[in-house]
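explain this:

___
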Amino acid sequence: MDRELEVIRDDMEQTRANLADKLGALENQVRETVSTASETVTSTVEGVKEVVSTVSETVESVTESVNIYKQIEQHPWAAVGISLAAGFVAGQLLGGSSRPYPEPAPREHYPEPPAPEGRLSPYFEETASQQQPKAASEQQPKEESSFGLPPFLSSLCLSLKAWVPRRPPR
C-alpha cells in the first residue's frame, strides 16, 4: 500500500507540474494576445487621430479657398475681370441685340408740337427782333420768373416742354 500511495502521489505531483506548465503557457498566450490587441488599438487610435487632423486641415483649406471675400481681397483685378467676362457672357446668352436702340420713326410720324406759351428764349427773341424791329415801348423789361429762374431759363423750359412728346398715362 505504501507503494501504491507513493505512485499516486508521484502522479499527482506530475499532474500538478503539467497543469502549472499548461497554465503558464496559457497565461503567456493571453498576455501576448492582450499585448497585440492593445498595440493594435493604440495604432488604430493614432491612425484615426492623423486622419482627423488631415481631414480638418483639408476642410480648412477648402473653406479658405472657397471664401469669395478673401479671394476678392487677395486678387481684386482677377475679380473685376471675371465679373466683366461673366457680364459679357450673360449679355450674349440672354439675347443682347447688336443695336441698342430701335431706329427712330420718320419725321412725318411725329405730331406737330404745340406753339410755345409765354416768351421765347433769348436766342429766338434776338432772331425775331432782327427780323421785325420792335418799338421801345413794346419791349418788355427783364424779370425773373415765378420759379426764381432768369427769364431765358424759364423760356427755355417752356420751349422744351412744348417740344417733348407727352407719354400716355399708365
Q: What stands out?
A: Residues 31 and 37 are 10 Å apart (CA to CA). The helical segments are 2-66, 68-74, 76-93, 122-131, 151-163. Residues 111-132+145-163 form one domain.
